[in-house]
Design brief:
Order of helices and strands: HEEEEEEEHEEEEEH
Distance between the termini: 29 Å
Number of domains: 1
Helix content: 25-40%
Number of strands: 12
Shape: flat
Strand content: 35-45%
Structural class: alpha+beta
Radius of gyration: 28 Å
Length: about 220
Amino acid sequence: MNLAVHICRTASACVLATLALGAAATSAHALTLTIDPSLSSVTYTPGGFSFGGPDGDGSLTFPAAQTFALSGRFDLRQETVPITLWFDPLTIVNREEIRFEAIAVDSGGAATAGFAFPTYFAVLTGQDFAASEGACTWFPSTGSCTSMGSFGSYAGSFDGTTLSMSGIDYAGDLFSSSRFDFTVVARAATVPEPGTLACLAIGALALGVARRRRGGRAGAGNMPA
């Protein structure tokens, strides 16, 4: 086996392996997104209050809000989930959901205060999604419903490359609940993995070698005896 054929076969196997891995990732609908810290933040508003006021006049004083930048990355996973309607047990509908996994997000002091990046699922409709920690989440074709209490929620859109969302999270108890208002803009990496680039480079090298060998043979055949 000559060198060009060996390299071509090696490159082909490498590229096919890369494509197979890509197909598996696509079938799982998982994508890693990197947060843009210049456009992402969380504002922490402490719960509770105190009496006295700045001048000791007995008025209520509320803690000042603080804002922290968000950075890091997380995986976005999309899946189709069959749902049996509680009001029509014989009817099953498919619901598109997304959720965030493998979360590696730095929220600064907000994490110390109790902020948690959401892990509960969101219902996806086209490019738009919405989520709630409450049990009342999704009723197809019947309108919305209402949950009692302080539940976290978020909503936004994802176009396949850029995710933009805003939401609310709570920490504490019913009487002294701290609130976190967060905004996230995150993007998927579009640069091929180094392994893919290496495979493609090997393939291009093999193609060049094969062409040069064919050209050399053609030139030798045309030389006068």
